[in-house]
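lol so apparently i was supposed to do this last week
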Amino acid sequence: MTQSDFCIQLKDIHKSFGSQKVLRGVDLDIVRGATTVICGESGQGKSVLLKHILGLVRPDRGEVLVEGENISRLKGSALKQARTRFGVLFQGVALFDSMTVFDNIALPLRERSRLPEKEVAAKVKRALEMMDLEGSAEKFPAQLSGGMQKRVGLARALQLEPDILLFDEPTTGLDPVKSHDVYKLFFATQKKLGYTSIIVSHDIPKIFNLADHIAILHEGRVRACMTPAELQRSRDPFVRNFIVRVMGSAHNSKQNGCDNQ
Ligand SMILES: Nc1ncnc2c1ncn2[C@@H]1O[C@H](COP(=O)(O)OP(=O)(O)O)[C@@H](O)[C@H]1O
Ligand SMILES: [Mg+2]
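anyway here it is w/ adenosine-5'-diphosphate bound
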């Protein structure tokens, strides 16, 4: 791997809130066009880390480079411009209840592009097909299952064709089977479209084998960043302990019927 394979680089990020040191020297390289899962226990600073990447929070020390540009130094329109690279899907999905599925997906295009309505409609139609939502265009979010709502959220996040998609615990509120289905769709969509994907997740063992890289945030630092295979083979006592504690026996997910298909 060389410098040019990375689309985001976090270098020695420190961040405190009052006397609480949340990030204490985070180093992390995000490989372009791959999926990186950032995991760690609740309260370890995963969401704070994502906010640094988006330039929503500035580090006390260190640099956040997005395509080589230090986003933590940007302000105003330059920051806005840098943020157009990102699509974001947070916990609650935040669909608009009073809008149909079609209008929810069309929203970013109508607000932030100058596409004529006919082209908006064509794009939304393609997104509906991709997410298996063709029959739901005129439905309202409340009429959909949780998994379908997440798919609408993903379709909407993809409308502006972001280079980088950030997901913060996007399956919160779904049962484990549905979560797994949603993640499988996220990974399949990423493979198809080739964007860089960063997923924060606190403990969903089954997504591990779907990821390209897994970063473990612990006590303010990225303690390990490796492929799922490397993680499972690792002899690092911290990694072994993490796997047993967080993933339990499910870490050998091939035996649990979960693979890369
Ligand atoms: N804006 C803020 N002001 C004060 N404390 C914050 C702020 N944002 C996050 N924190 C604190 O930082 C810690 C890490 O938060 P967070 O990144 O949300 O954890 P995670 O996403 O890993 O569960 C928590 O203790 C949280 O209370
Ligand atoms: Mg969080």
